[in-house]
Specification:
The protein has two helices and six strands, in the order αββββββα. It is of the alpha+beta class and 123 residues long.
Length: 123
């Protein structure tokens, strides 16, 4: 004879937790898919170039030697931060902003849709 009813009262909450656990990845995938279709807003001072990381902080910007500033942020196509060491040797189409001393400080690796658009300063 089973006199313990505590496990029976937990069954609906376990079912709810299981449904949430299964639904969470689907919601994340939907958010990721919608983020891929949006074009990110860039600052009006952003420039366009092709960046190649040679040996951090040394980079080549459109074939010319350049340098990343201390604390530079590189954002990938999914808008997550990339480490400069992870993209050594790759030629990436980017929008970038320089700091007051002239070093590259903010970098956005562009998606194909973003690369097809012209910057407001290029029109």
């Amino acid at each position: 004879m089973n006199r313990c009813t505590a496990t029976d009262s937990l069954a609906p909450s376990r079912r709810t937790l299981m449904r949430l656990a299964l639904a969470a990845p689907l919601m994340g995938m939907a958010a990721w898919a919608s983020a891929q279709t949006n074009v990110r807003p860039f600052p009006p001072t952003a420039e366009r170039g092709v960046m190649q990381v040679i040996a951090p902080p040394v980079i080549a910007m459109s074939g010319k030697p350049d340098r990343l500033s201390p604390g530079a942020r590189i954002r990938g196509p999914n808008n997550l931060l990339l480490m400069s060491g992870a993209i050594i040797g790759q030629n990436l189409v980017v929008n970038f902003v320089r700091n007051p001393t002239g070093e590259v400080h903010d970098v956005w690796v562009l998606t194909d849709a973003e690369a097809a658009l012209k910057l407001p300063t290029q029109q």
